[in-house]
Structure prediction request, 381 residues.
Amino acid sequence: MLGLAKRALEHFKNKTTDQAEGIMSNSIEAYVNSDRYQNEIERIYKTLPLALCLSSEISNANSHRAMKVIDTPVLITRGEDMKARAFLNVCRHRGSQVCEEGRGEKRNFICPYHAWTYNHEGKLVGMYGEKTFGDLNKEEFGLIELNCEERAGLIWVTLNPKVQFDIDSWLGDFALELETLNLKEWHIFDQREIEGPGWKVALDGYLEAYHHNQLHGDTVGKHTVGNLLVLDTYGPHQRLTFGRKSLSELIDKPEEEWEDPLDHIRLIHSGFPNLSISGVLGGHCLVSQIFPTSSPDFTITRQTILSAEEPKTKEEKKTTQDFSDMVLQAVVDEDYKMGLQIQSNISKLESHNFVYGKNEPAVQNYHNWVDKFMNTEGSNW
Ligand code: FES
Ligand SMILES: [Fe+2]
Prediction:
């Protein structure tokens, strides 16, 4: 953290930022072409491991989290053996959704159509009117399992059941960075889903500090230094460090007297393709998962507000609520309001390009990786 604070302070003093080698342009097609969009969804979202759920969302034995991801109903469970597993949330009898969306705890999953019953390992363990149904080998009719790994307080899943992955090679050293956040131990204060612009327009906004002063002057921009970015990359994943305004206090202070360097920077862990973990203010954290939909024009973002400790006193609850309200405002009234406007204008620029400045290296990396995945055969992660 000290190293990051030093790098941020250097930029603060010199009014500089980490930079890419040059300006990069990207065609508007990359944002609006629906064939291209469908291919990218298949190749990226349905093939690469996605962090679908926080470990703490299913911390107890016999807990679960069900959700729809793009068009795929997913059920993530933790059984008595405490192992996280993921399944298609689709009944093997005739396709009903086995578990309603959301989080909870229950002994078994009873299909709402004809009451076939599955356990947390996805096994078919009971059939209503079994004797009348006829002979059926229950072992062959378990839920379809998706590949699933738990790492760094997150549960990673591939949506295509045929795709295997190795979480360690997918995350590389980024896993160590995520581990330092200790996400598993944090308290879930709130969770909500909000509509936003298309995938790339939404994501671009998470990857630069160039817009902070202008767009977020009254919210997060009050705390961060606009256009200052310290960037570290881990394959497709990135850690962005923004400077906080309080960096100014360090200018004349000897390093030995710096207290917590984290007071002066803000870390964003950006997991490709749709995860952003943002420690904004001491003891509070925002996890954003941006999910594409069947339309290239809009996304659903699941925001989870975490606090290091469960807020107990009235004052602690208020501080956490204030943080939660501020990030909601910054995203809904500022980022996504802007993003939705961009989304509706964007096709007017067809046949032209967007440009990403040298001061927006994380945006450049992101789009380069999208292209890389689209141009690579296979899925051996
Ligand atoms: S569809 Fe699930 S029991 Fe019939
Ligand atoms: Fe923003």
Notes: The pocket of FE2/S2 (inorganic) cluster (ligand 1) is lined by residues 91, 93-96, 111, 113-116 (CB under 6 Å). The chain has a mean pLDDT of 95.
